[in-house]
Amino acid sequence: SVDCSFSQGVCDWKQDTDDDFDWNPADRDRGDGYYMAVPAFVGHKKDMGRLKLLLTDLKPKSSYCLIFSYRLAGERVGKLRVFLANRKRAPVWEQNTGKDERWRTGKIEIFQGAETTNSVTFESERGKGKTGEIGVDNVILISGPCPED
């Protein structure tokens, strides 16, 4: 298992330079480190912010599970999508509303076939809302299929 969270993770995170805004670190409520967030008021409607996780040394023909915490807090805050590098066209995961301000867990299976996935991109799309934020935290990559809840 590889810890790619933001406080002391060993992974290589990059801000996309072709997007409209950057993700920024935000302090956790408990005071133990920080997560990455996009406040609702940043940018214009439909603007995008992308944060890319570069994956190196994933073995071909094996499966991995990317597990992460996410939060969509606030009305009409926008969308959070996840893309894998070898499937650029369509997101492999998407969420557009938060029922409440709670953190939830997302899981994505990554299968290393002939084409290897060398990055995962978290994309935030600005909504109509003026308050709230989209947040991502506790990003962990484990080998093998995703565990059942």
UniProtKB/TrEMBL annotation:
Gene3D superfamilies: 2.60.120.200
Organism from which the protein derives: Brachypteracias leptosomus
Organism placement in taxonomy: Eukaryota, Metazoa, Chordata, Craniata, Vertebrata
UniProt name for this protein: EGFL6 protein
InterPro entries reported for this sequence: ConA-like_dom_sf, MAM_dom, MAM_domain-containing
Source species, domain of life: Eukaryota
Domain MAM stretches: 2-148
PANTHER family: APICAL ENDOSOMAL GLYCOPROTEIN PRECURSOR (PTHR23282), MAM DOMAIN-CONTAINING PROTEIN (PTHR23282:SF101)
Pfam family, one: MAM
GO cellular component: membrane
